[in-house]
Amino acid sequence: MKGYFSAMLFACAALAGCGSVTSGLDFKAPAGWTATPSILGRMQLWIKKGSDNKQGQMVFLIRGQTANTMNFKDLPQAGTAIRDQKQSEIKICGNQRAQYMSGVGTSSKNGDQALEMVSAPVGNESYLAMYIRPQSQRADPEAEAAIRSLCIKR
């Protein structure tokens, strides 16, 4: 059974026939970042490699995440220790309610990472967008704008 599921997941990702996580969204990924294929139409990742190929930046987009239960500690990409966690309600796409969280995660592999997340309902789905960068680097304005672009496509 495990082999069957793995083969199905691989085939779906390889053929990109499972839909797009950005379908129906006016999501604007940062220009020039490398996109991974959408995984089952539920998750996609954009990467900007650092000058040392180690300290890169990432933007995640996940469809189907519940806004009321989001927590950095539930995401393995956030690292093992989260501090300075802040949460607030913001407006995106004009007047759409969204939940914003920021914090600093520490991992043994990448050190301190700045984390920003926006979660919002869009149509019948909930979306979570996350931006991760080395704490020592300035935030990329396009990446910060991307996580706030969870808007219905017009």
Number of helices: 2
CATH H-level superfamily: Mog1/PsbP, alpha/beta/alpha sandwich
Side by side, the strands of the main sheet go 1-2-3-7-6-5-4
* Euclidean distance between termini CA atoms: 42 Å
Which CATH C-level class is it? Alpha Beta
What percentage of amino acids are in beta strands? 35-45%
Gross morphology is globular
Largest sheet, strands/sense/barrel:
7 strands, antiparallel
Mean pLDDT: 79
CATH architecture: 3-Layer(aba) Sandwich
CATH topology: Protein Transport Mog1p, Chain A
Structural class call reads mainly beta
- Indicate the low-confidence ranges by residue numbers: 1-17
Helix content: 10-25%
What's the number of structural domains? 1
Gyration radius, rounded: 16 Å
Order of helices and strands: HEEEEEEEH
Number of strands: 7
Outline:
The chain is mainly beta and 154 residues long.
Describe this protein's structure:
The structure is a single chain. This protein has about 150 residues and is mainly beta. The protein has a single domain, classed as Mog1/PsbP, alpha/beta/alpha sandwich (Protein Transport Mog1p, Chain A), CATH 3.40.1000. It has helices at about 1-15, 140-145; strands at about 35, 45-50, 55-65, 80-90, 95-105, 110-120, 125-135. A seven-stranded antiparallel β-sheet has the order 1-2-3-7-6-5-4, covered by helices on one side. The radius of gyration is 16 Å and the shape is globular. The N and C termini lie far apart (about 40 Å).
